[in-house]
Amino acid sequence: MSYTSIKILHLGSVLLSYSLFFLRGLWVLRASPVMQQRWVKIAPHIIDTVLLGSAITLAVLLGISPFTAPWLAAKIIALLLYIVLGSIALKRGKTRQTKLACWLAAQAVFFYIVLTAWAHDPMPWRAL
């Protein structure tokens, strides 16, 4: 696969992953039975595996690592925070308010990750 193909795959995976996270958050907050459907439980894992695989492939092709590119290190740390917040929002939160707060915070972190990737800067607001 070419760099361009992998980048398109990565960006498409980002869009799918976020879109499904957004929907799942709405479904959780509304206590929708859709959350119990098999595809809702499986699809995020498949999409996120493709997303992670394409990210690693792009990093290898570009010859960058979190040790030499501070923006990539920031993005990885933010990704870990996004995963924790998303887990609380969709599964582990005890109250609706906790789930809502974590869902909203996870979205803010997601947009930080996107801006960091776009600006190649751990403080992407400097590029705006």
Q: Unreliable segments (pLDDT under 50, ≥5 consecutive)?
A: none
Largest sheet report: none
Q: What is the approximate shape?
A: globular
State the total count of DSSP E strands: 0
Which band does the percent of strand residues land in? under 5%
- How many helical stretches? 4
Structural class: mainly alpha
Averaging pLDDT over every residue, what do you get?
Answer: 96
Gyration radius, rounded: 16 Å
Distance between the termini: 33 Å
Proportion in helices: over 70%
How many domains? The number is 2
In sequence order, what are the helices and strands, one letter per element?
HHHH
Detailed description of the structure:
By secondary structure, the chain is mainly alpha-helical. Helices cover 77% and strands 0% of the residues. It has two domains: 1-63; 65-128. Helix 1 packs antiparallel against helix 4. The chain is globular and about 45 Å long.
